[in-house]
Write a structure and sequence with these properties.
This protein is α/β, with parallel strands linked by helices. The protein has helices spanning 38-55, 94-99, 111-122, 182-185, 187-200, 205-209, 219-227, 231-255, 271-281, 304-311, and strands at residues 2-8, 12-19, 24-31, 63-70, 73-75, 80-84, 89-92, 106-110, 131-136, 140-146, 149-151, 259-263, 294-297. The chain has a 5-stranded mixed sheet with strand order 3-2-1-4-8. A 5-stranded mixed sheet has the order 11-10-9-12-13, with helices on both faces. The protein binds zinc ion.
Length: 315
């Protein structure tokens, strides 16, 4: 049996035909054009599914199900997407709408949750029963896998680990609260802190690396300057790592997973990030001397969304 996995993003929709083992046979994409009404977007998603199946030379009869990852929350009991802020969706009857075009079982899940699920089947946490995937991008997303299954809570609103409150009355968050984990552990946090640091340390390498324009700073510039030994960049980076590590410690205390997986844009920093995070977590683990989650870097990259969504049908 084969599965179709769909990764719905704010600018593009990606879909692929995936086999039992989580390998993508063929993939394709189409622009989301999210400003249109949801019916049109879903019609395009259906067309894309049919197109990739045709390109893979897999007849629709051999497709077991269609799984979809969306940047929002999903209620699988009703097939309705209550909130998907990036797409401006509110109470969209996604499953029934997609089934108007394709008569197959349809699974919908949060995109970070499916990415974590993909890593737990075909990626860096393959073979484990419990893991927490953390996407370090513009925000921070989470994908929790428990007993080998994606876990999004009793009401579909779990695994929003970016909004665990790390600091009471801290930095304001887009969610309306203050001090959320993602205000300190996202790429956005690195950029914000680098801009602040440049005000008192204009001599930093970052100034030259961003062409003197603080608006051009991105996380990679700051991390590259830290790797090069620039003191200001190193300070920003180590504060970032400290915040990320404390969030990870909280997750370990709450869930005690086998593996914590770091993905998303910031994780491209590789071992430089991984080694620093492992070191920073160690002194804060509650039960000293006992084993705890191995921290690893994600390995499926941008394909995780397609693979994890596809394999939702395997559960
Ligand atoms: Zn928040």
């Amino acid at each position: 049996m084969k599965y179709i996995g769909v990764d719905v993003g704010g600018t593009s929709v990606k879909a692929g035909v995936v086999d039992e083992a989580g390998h993508i046979l063929v993939k394709g994409s189409t622009p989301t054009l999210a400003k249109r009404s949801y019916e049109w977007v879903i019609q395009d998603i259906a067309d894309l599914c049919l197109r990739v199946a045709r390109q893979a030379d897999v007849p629709m009869e051999e497709i077991e199900s269609i799984g979809v990852g969306v940047p929002g929350i999903c209620d699988m009991k009703t097939g309705i997407i209550p909130f998907c802020t990036n797409l401006g969706w509110h109470d969209v009857p996604f499953v029934s709408e997609l089934q108007k075009h394709i008569d197959k079982p349809v699974w919908v899940e949060n995109d970070a949750t499916v990415a974590g699920y993909a890593e737990s089947i075909a990626g860096v946490s393959a073979g484990t029963q419990s893991s927490v995937f953390i996407t370090l991008g513009t925000g921070v997303g989470g994908g929790i896998v428990i007993n080998g299954k994606p876990y999004s809570g009793a009401h579909g609103i779990g695994s929003e680990i970016g909004h665990m409150i790390l600091k009471m009355d801290g930095e304001p968050c887009t969610c309306g609260n203050y001090g959320c984990f993602e205000r300190y552990a996202s790429a956005t946090a690195i950029i914000r802190e680098a801009r602040r640091a440049l005000k008192s340390h204009p001599e930093s390498l970052i100034t030259e690396a961003c062409g003197g324009d603080p608006d051009s700073i991105n996380a990679k510039i700051v991390i590259d300057c830290a790797k090069a030994g620039d003191a200001t960049a190193m300070e920003v980076f180590s504060e970032y790592v400290r915040a990320l590590a404390l969030g990870i410690v909280t997750l370990i205390n709450a869930i005690d997973p086998e593996v914590i997986v770091l993905g998303g844009g910031v994780s491209v920093a590789g071992d430089f990030l991984l080694d620093a995070v492992r070191e920073a977590v160690k002194p804060h683990v509650f039960y000293k001397g006992l084993p705890y989650a191995d921290i690893r870097l994600a390995k499926l990259g941008a394909d995780a969304g397609i693979i994890g969504a596809a394999l939702l049908g395997r559960r």
